Amino acid sequence: MKMRLNRDVFPLVIATCAPWLHTLAQDDRLNIVVILADDLGTNELGCYGGKNLQTPNIDWIANEGIQMTNNYASATMSVPIRASLYTGLYPARHGSYQNHKPTYDFVKTAPDYFHDLGYRVGRTGKNHPSKQPDVYRFEEVKGFPVSSIAREAPFTTDGIEEFINRNEAEPFCLYVCSIHPHVPWTWGDPAKFNPNNVVLPPNSVDNKKTREIFCKYLAEIQELDNEVGAVLQVLETSGKLENTLVIFLGEQGPQMPFGKWTCYRYGQHSAFLARYPKGIAEGTVSDALIQYEDILPTMIEFAGGDPIGGLDGESFLGVLSGENKEHREWVYGIHNNIPEGSAYPIRSIQDKKYKLIVNLISEEDYYEKHIMNPADREMWYSWIISAKTDKRARFLTDRFVQRPAIELYDLENDEWELNNIAHLPEHRERIALMQDELKKWMTQQGDQGILMDTEFEMTKY
């Protein structure tokens, strides 16, 4: 290979043989490594059509395996979506349905399920949700930075090497959680990028300040790609690469307007790449709809476990193997804005073609403190200045702050969701259908809507 640089509500997992896997020898153990980015805009990756930088290590996983083009985060904040990744439950059911809100202490998580299957389960890097060691029983592996707001981010793979080689008879599941490209965008070399030449997302105000800041964001994506290469190198050097399912995930979108802390596609659309040469054909691209809640059940089936009753997600292992073309009919989104700003609950539902967003208190202005505080948020402040004289900048800033009760987007023709078509009479029946399906999901989840976006006692990180 070319290497680049305690209420127990869920039953035990019982080992079985996943039918699509190759015939295993007695000593052939299947390992899993999940590499998770932090606030990554999927559109910047080369394999997803990115134009601003090369991401050869991440792209290598796609070229050697499968690229999912319709993976979505149900919540665009780290604590809720990572809790969904580790539990297979939507945020309303695992409890972390607001950022920094603790997970319910009776919920089983990935370490529990994989321990039941005889795996060692480790995590290195960002530890959200944290301060709940009795819920998230990971072995903490040293080497990657833990704090997502660290201004410096040196790393070493020594801890990973020790972890994966510790016991040859025991399979491992390891989550490698990068802090890139989470703000403050201080790591890497932005001088490698020319602000005048970068391609900004179509939902961005195009001004000098935005272009300068965007180069810092791109530099952190470059560092993320370097980390991915280092992890792959350790797996290859240790002789474990060919017998390990490697998954790369983008988490939610970046800390920019219409990205993180929204139900817009820029925030929800997430990279999913997977490589396992004994079961996943190289160069595969799938547009099957999946969500983060489906990933844990998929990993459990890959490891030989039975389906787990009571989870919200379902395994899409058949999609990875090429046996199935489709997975979900609908994917869902939930956003509660407290503690990141004033209350502004949002829900969403989509299929491959259309996205419906419901703003539950649309009479209020949207406010998110990390993006919109003019005192220390240079990008948004530059947008406000541009909006005084630039019509498009005014359009973008106005629509970010003042939102209608219902938004509908044609994702095939408007993937950046710039043209709300909810008012068109030809979409009346479609909106009614999607609203009905969304209400069914909220009822099934025990989602109380506005009542869920309230003050709570935060876990201290």
Strand content: 5-15%
Which blocks of ≥5 consecutive residues have pLDDT under 50? 1-20, 22-27
Record the strand order, biggest sheet.
Answer: 5-4-6-1-7-8-2-9
Strand element count = 14
| Main sheet attributes: strand count, strand direction, barrel closure | 8 strands, mixed
- CATH class categorisation of the largest domain: Alpha Beta
Oligomerization: single chain
| Sequence of secondary-structure elements | EHEEHHHEEHEHEHEEEHHEEEHHHEH
Describe the structure.
With about 450 residues, this protein is α/β, with parallel strands linked by helices. The protein has two domains: about 30-330, Alkaline Phosphatase, subunit A (3-Layer(aba) Sandwich); about 330-450, no CATH class. The chain contains 13 helices and 14 strands. The strands form three sheets. An eight-stranded mixed sheet has the order 5-4-6-1-7-8-2-9, with helices on both faces. A hairpin with a 3-residue loop joins strand 12 (about 345-350) and strand 13 (about 355-360). Helix 11 (about 380-385) crosses helix 12. The protein is globular, with a radius of gyration of 21 Å. It starts with about 30 loop residues before the first strand and ends in a 16-residue tail after the last helix. Mean pLDDT is about 95; it is low at about 1-20 and about 20-25.
List the helices and strands and how they pair.
Blueprint: E1 31-36, H1 56-64, E2 66-68, E3 71-72, H2 78-87, H3 91-94, H4 110-116, E4 120-125, E5 139-140, H5 158-165, E6 172-177, H6 208-237, E7 244-249, H7 265-268, E8 272-275, E9 284-286, E10 290-291, H8 295-302, H9 317-321, E11 331-335, E12 346-350, E13 354-359, H10 369-372, H11 378-387, H12 391-401, E14 406-410, H13 428-445
